[in-house]
Amino acid sequence: MENSKKISIRYLKKNALKSLKGKWGLAIGATVLGGIIMSLPSFIVSAFTTNSLLKMANEFEQRGYNYNYNYNYDFNYDFSRMFQVQASNTGLIMILSLLVAGAIRFGLIRFNINLIRDTKPRVEDIFSGFKKYLKTFLINLLLYIFRFLWGLLLALPIIVFVIIFVISVIKNDDVSVAAVVLLYLGILASVIVLQIFLSRYAMAFYIFNDNDEIDVMDSLNMSIELMVGKKIKFFLMQLSFIGWGILAVLSCGIGFLWLIPYMKATEACFYQEITGYQENVEVIEL
């Protein structure tokens, strides 16, 4: 079992709020700018996709007025075309997003580190990852790959739960409340375990920020080592914001303008706490 008693979540959140005092506008602006940049590929490609789909729908409608119109054939043909366009554009969005995500994620982390260290955080920090583009891109790419592969492996219990549930329904020709509850509990437990396990990579960009001379794989391996005994606490820290998350949703999403900077600043404080950072220390000792 992980030892997580030494880290106080309340203390981390208190320090985060202290760092944000008088700088909320700056933090919100940096977060919004980073979010806009990361969303640009989706907006741009979606605009072209919508235009293409509307043209196809219009062609489909116009052919409906022809006397020799074969509804079944044309419908299947147009549906296939629309699906191909949507699938190709989804792939394009993923590729374009991947090209900018690493640099922007690093930039947001640098901004929050500068914020809690009170070392003149600036909105321009968001673009700092592009100065180290290759490494930030590779770190982010590896994070996606490792999380995807581990996600597949740790998703096996969920698949087993679902198969057992389906077999039970087919065999008994009935759905019991107990079976549904067991299914949801199994899925929830698997998701929680997955989230806790994947937090082993959470400090990779933070480590690279403090020592950008290290290799890409070293930043991930150091994160894994650094998070030993701290993954549960990290998960509980994230979970502690659930109440604020509900309020943010009830505010039609406006509350996230304050919640996300608060969460990111607290995460940066978590990194500070587990590394025992002191000013003028450039290399992290593990």
Automatic annotation (TrEMBL):
InterPro entries: DUF975. It holds the Pfam family DUF975. The keyword ATP-binding does not apply. The chain crosses the membrane at residues 24-48, 92-116, 137-170, 176-198, 234-260. The keyword Transmembrane applies. Keywords: Membrane, Transmembrane, Transmembrane helix. PANTHER family: MEMBRANE PROTEIN (PTHR40076:SF1), MEMBRANE PROTEIN-RELATED (PTHR40076). This is DUF975 family protein. It comes from Clostridium paridis.
